[in-house]
Specification:
- The protein has 586 residues and is of the alpha/beta class.
- Among the domains are: 161 residues, Alpha-Beta Complex (2-enoyl-CoA Hydratase, Chain A, domain 1); 211 residues, 2-enoyl-CoA Hydratase, Chain A, domain 1.
- It is built from 22 helices and 22 strands.
- The strands form 6 sheets. Strands 10, 13, 15, 16, 17, 19, 20 and 21 form an 8-stranded mixed sheet that branches.
- Helix 3 links the parallel strand 4 and strand 5.
- The termini are far apart.
Length: 586
């Protein structure tokens, strides 16, 4: 009885303290919102770009952003905000230049390319860009190389090593446990299941990986070469020989313009902005500058709109929130834009390695209907592959960066067999009573029979045929040609332009411009769909739902991604259209 009373009292106290903490945070939010003053930009200001947070296509405003880090919501930056602010700063007379500061860059190479191109466009205004870091990672340096003046801490490093992608293989561990993963695929290059069936990359997977990663590396070197005046062969030799192994060597080989400490950087920025050495320099961050309104590029009001539909994350059935491409939510957004008479064109922004084949087909259908009623333009972010490519196939025009990843036209199914694990390791036996021969098809407690494998293969084959048929129709390519570049093969944006999977290079802003031109619009407003959730609702959900995941993430660090990938296997129901497993570039 004492234990019961003790635990009951502890529960009541816990609920009371949680409620008290919630109301305290709510009061802080209301106070911060009510006391927020209009943002003004002073003369001779700099736009301060500190790109150290995770960059995603768009974000829900964090109501706790004014508090120290450590709260449940992950700090993120919206690529749309970054691009809009750079574009706005170009014509803002109060902004003298951009100061770029970062060590690492938590963005894909496609997003990095879009920011880089926006900065190159900004330079056409005649305003300066200065970049500084204590240490440059390779991706951060590629972005910073556009700067008029590029500085490094005298004690810092600059990494130029080449690209790599790493895949962790689990077959050996699964063999020890007595677990078999049965993979049925259509496409020799469809390598999602390889980590569970192989000890290393298959020849086909290695071939395709070297192709697209080599294409990305070539483009990166060309970009650095153009801005730094160092030929591509020399840069490649620097990487092969690890030539740039100190700050002094970085300066000697023209990789940076100078070695400076932070106080020296501030002094130089003051000179560039005409600020007295004794006064503080005027600067403004993306967080604040995105709230600043500058004069429109056109006069008057227009009801005409271009709708941008953001689809990023795994393609799933159902109605999940931002960060996933759920079939109901994204289909509803496309349908809303299609039926809205004031929306004259649609941009489908995709950043996804795919997911469920059925969910992809559901969204594809809505995209097809939209393309039949008004201009539909697709914008590929870091990746739009497999199911992520299928949903944009009906678009009239597809844009991507040379550094984007696309293709992977292929499908597979994965079914685990845990019978040896249960029998031999745990001493557990599973028996079954069934009314029909295939009533237990797909059970994980026995291996598939030969005829069952044929059944699954026919399902996979039918889905693949539907996939290439849809792409053939959308891209107006012969089905045989789609199959030739399909088979699960992954392509870079540069290769995709040559084989017809995309139509032109460009980022999100370019896609919006193309959509406006296709609809013959001289002036228009841009709206974003689906409508973002209330940030407070997002916070509460993350606070209640993601506690265990965040504890594991804190404990496992960078190895959490491997745990997450294995854990997500339980969600691979049905035929899948996904990019190769554990896709990450270093």
């Amino acid at each position: 009885m004492k234990s019961f009373l003790k635990y009951t009292l502890a529960t009541i106290v816990g609920i009371f303290l949680s409620t008290l903490l919630f109301f305290f945070l709510l009061i802080l939010i209301i106070s911060a919102s009510s006391s927020e003053k209009p943002v003004e930009v002073k003369d001779n200001s700099i736009l301060y770009l500190k790109l150290n947070d995770k960059i995603v296509d768009r974000t829900v405003d964090n109501p706790f952003d004014f508090l120290p880090t450590g709260l449940p919501m992950v700090r993120e930056m919206g690529l749309n905000d970054i691009l809009d602010c750079i574009k706005k700063a170009k014509r803002d007379d109060h902004i003298s230049g951009i100061y770029l500061e970062m060590i690492s860059l938590a963005a894909g190479y496609g997003s990095t390319e879009e920011i880089r191109n926006a900065l190159l466009d900004f330079k056409e205004s005649g305003k300066f860009i200065m970049a500084f870091s204590d240490t440059y990672t390779q991706k951060a340096y590629y972005l910073a190389s556009v700067a008029d003046s590029l500085y490094l801490n005298p004690s810092g490093d600059l990494l130029l090593l080449g690209l790599r992608t790493e895949i962790m293989f689990y077959k050996g561990a699964l063999d020890k446990l007595g677990i078999e993963v049965q993979v049925i695929r259509r496409g020799d290059y469809k390598s999602f299941g390889e980590p569970f069936t192989n000890d290393h990359m298959s020849p086909e997977n290695r071939t395709q990986t070297m192709q697209w990663i080599g294409s990305l590396w070539d483009h990166i070197l060309e970009g650095i070469s153009e801005q730094r005046g160092i030929d591509v062969e020399t840069l490649n030799n620097y990487a092969d020989q690890f030539t740039i192994c100190s700050s002094d060597l970085a300066l000697e080989h023209n990789m940076v313009d100078g070695l400076k400490f932070k106080d020296e950087i501030i002094d130089e920025l003051k000179k560039l902005t005409g600020t007295s050495p004794k006064k503080d320099m005027n600067s403004i961050t993306i967080k604040k500058y995105k709230k600043v309104h500058v004069k429109k590029e056109y006069k008057g009001y227009t009801k005409d709109k271009v709708a941008v539909i953001y689809a990023h994350g795994d393609v799933l059935m159902g109605n999940t929130g931002e960060g996933t491409i759920s079939s109901e939510r994204i289909s509803r957004a496309i349908r809303k834009a299609r039926r809205d008479s004031t929306v004259k064109a649609i941009v489908l922004r995709v950043n996804s390695g795919g997911g469920g084949a059925l969910a992809s087909e559901v969204i594809y259908r809505e995209a097809l209907l939209a393309s039949q009623s008004k201009p539909l333009v697709a914008s590929i972010g870091d990746v739009a592959a497999s199911g992520g490519y299928l949903i944009l196939a009906p678009a009239d025009t597809v844009l991507a960066s040379p550094n984007s990843i696309t293709g992977s036209i292929g499908v597979f199914a994965m079914l685990p067999n845990v019978q040896p694990f249960f029998n031999n390791k745990l001493g557990i036996n599973i028996d079954v009573a069934k009314t029909n021969k295939h009533a237990d098809l797909g059970t994980p407690f026995r291996p598939m029979s030969a005829d069952e494998k044929d059944i699954i293969y026919h399902m996979v084959d039918r889905t693949y045929d539907s996939f290439i048929t849809d792409v053939s129709s959308g891209r107006e390519m012969p089905k045989e040609e789609v199959n030739a570049i399909g088979g699960g093969r992954v392509w870079s944006g540069a290769d995709a332009l040559e084989n017809g999977l995309i139509d032109m290079y460009g980022g999100l802003n370019d896609a919006i411009k193309v959509a406006g031109e296709m609809a013959d619009l001289e002036k228009y407003r841009v709206i974003s769909l689906p409508v973002l959730e209330n940030p407070l609702d997002v916070f509460i959900r993350e606070l209640t739902d993601n506690t265990r995941a965040r504890m594991l993430q804190n404990e496992l660090g960078e190895f959490y991604k491997y745990f997450k990938s294995v854990h997500e296997l339980e969600n691979l129901f049905g035929v899948q259209a996904r990019i190769p497993f554990m896709f990450e570039i270093y």
